[in-house]
């Protein structure tokens, strides 16, 4: 294992436990929680883990090669970093840490519209390799300006998010005053005082702000006003009419994130998307939804030759990546896993988490005697 690997944290669960101790409760709960009763959050992972894989020990086998081609580029492994909003709240500088680590390890990093690093900075840190996730702005002018900036920053892939037609109902965030509009309560301030390394780092880096959105945000808003402004400026509601001008303008690859229904994938193909990320926002929006993995084999079977089928929501380990790839995904993404990494280990968190997941994933491939990522479906056992 590489030098930058910290052997005290050999699993995502170890990083999660450390993150919980190190950052204020309201920040940890914002990251960790699902919506309503957390049913969707929990089945995302438990359903992935129902998948079993069959090793083939007597094959003429050399060594696993984890490299994976996607949209004409070769990545070092079939996983990347999902877009996460407000990353600087969980650990200051975490989008910078993750973008840098993703670039060094040659895996994709997706920047959220509402995170605490700008498109331009993401591009600089990844030498033009960062993908950008767009929350659809209500005003065409704002949308066009953001698209232009993403193009100038050489983002190869634009990801349109469709699974936030309304805010998720998240009891923890409501209790903590993090729902929109947000409030800073005495309880939250008390929690900050109990986490000195988080507080000191936050002081050092300044209050996290929505960097990409700065040019469109009036100055001097308090938190409550900012919440209202964001609510008014962005609409998660997408339809053919809103997607068409984006497809017409965007010359790079276009990916739809947040679908789970076969009919939505069929529409995405008709609308000219190059890929879809099957995703339910990590169980943060519709508690009564299916797990993403339960929709994957059917969708991959029906549409896998027409559009790139990727998946996130629920993966927490190398075996989970292997199970998902065996079930038909072309590529996988994770959100919380990487944020647990930076919240637990700060500057070393991105490097550590990627190294760990890649090591775990390669071990599974070697154990299966599977040389190539695209051969993983040969090891899938239908239950
Ligand atoms: C704290 C948090 C914030 C998120 N913010 C965004 C966002 O701004 N844009 C987006 O497309 N998805 C967002 N997501 C969803 C992730 O991109 C991803 O779909 C999800 O985390 C995958 O599930 P996992 O955490 O189980 O890996 C967020 C997820 C979390 C946990």
UniProtKB/TrEMBL annotation:
PROSITE patterns named in the record: FMN_HYDROXY_ACID_DH_1, FMN_HYDROXY_ACID_DH_2
Keyword Oxidoreductase recorded: yes
Single biological process term from Gene Ontology: aerobic respiration
InterPro entries attached to this UniProt entry: Aldolase_TIM (IPR013785), Alpha-hydoxy_acid_DH_FMN (IPR012133), FMN-dep_DH (IPR000262), FMN_HAD (IPR037396), FMN_hydac_DH_AS (IPR008259)
Cofactor: FMN
Gene3D superfamilies recorded: Aldolase class I
Record-listed FMN binding positions: 83-85, 112, 133, 257, 279, 312-316, 335-336
Domain FMN hydroxy acid dehydrogenase: 4-383
Domain of life where this protein originates: Bacteria
Pfam families per record: FMN_dh (PF01070)
Key words, A-Z: Flavoprotein, FMN, Oxidoreductase
Residues at the active site: 281
One GO MF term: L-lactate dehydrogenase (NAD+) activity
GO cellular component, one term: plasma membrane
Binding site for glyoxylate: 30, 135, 170, 281, 284
Family: Belongs to the FMN-dependent alpha-hydroxy acid dehydrogenase family.
Protein's recorded name: L-lactate dehydrogenase (Cytochrome)
Species annotation: Salegentibacter agarivorans
């Amino acid at each position: 294992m590489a030098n930058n690997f910290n052997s005290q944290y050999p699993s995502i669960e170890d990083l999660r436990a450390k993150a919980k101790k190190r950052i204020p409760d309201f920040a940890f709960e914002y990251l960790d929680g699902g919506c309503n009763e957390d049913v969707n959050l929990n089945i995302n992972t438990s359903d992935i883990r129902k998948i079993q894989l069959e090793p083939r020990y007597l094959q003429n086998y050399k060594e696993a090669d984890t490299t994976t081609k996607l949209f004409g580029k070769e990545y070092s492994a079939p996983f990347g970093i999902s877009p996460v909003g407000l990353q600087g709240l969980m650990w200051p500088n975490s989008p910078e840490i993750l973008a840098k680590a993703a670039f060094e390890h040659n895996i994709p990093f997706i920047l959220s519209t509402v995170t605490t690093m700008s498109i331009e900075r993401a591009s600089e840190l990844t030498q033009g390799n960062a993908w950008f996730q767009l929350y659809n702005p209500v005003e065409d002018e704002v949308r066009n300006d953001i698209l232009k900036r993403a193009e100038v920053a050489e983002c190869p892939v634009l990801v349109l998010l469709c699974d936030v037609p309304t805010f998720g109902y998240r009891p923890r965030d409501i209790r903590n005053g993090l729902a929109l509009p947000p409030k800073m309560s005495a309880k939250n301030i008390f929690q900050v005082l109990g986490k000195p390394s988080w507080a000191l780092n936050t002081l050092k880096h300044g209050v996290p702000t929505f960097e990409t959105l700065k040019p469109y945000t009036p100055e001097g808003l308090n938190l409550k006003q900012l919440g209202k402004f964001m609510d008014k400026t962005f609409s998660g509601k997408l339809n053919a009419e809103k997607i068409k001008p984006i497809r017409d303008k965007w010359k790079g690859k276009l990916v739809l994130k947040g679908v789970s229904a076969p009919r939505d994938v069929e529409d995405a193909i008709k609308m000219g998307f190059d890929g879809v990320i099957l995703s339910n926002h990590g169980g943060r929006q519709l508690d009564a939804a299916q797990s993403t993995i339960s929709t994957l084999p059917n969708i991959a079977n029906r549409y896998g030759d027409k559009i790139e089928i990727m998946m996130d929501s629920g993966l927490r380990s190398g075996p989970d990546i292997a199970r998902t790839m065996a079930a038909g995904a072309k590529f996988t993404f994770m959100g919380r896993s990487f944020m647990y990494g930076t919240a637990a280990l700060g500057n070393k968190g991105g490097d550590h988490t990627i190294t760990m997941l890649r090591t775990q994933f390669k071990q599974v491939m070697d154990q299966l005697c599977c040389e190539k990522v695209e051969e993983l479906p040969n090891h899938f056992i239908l239950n």
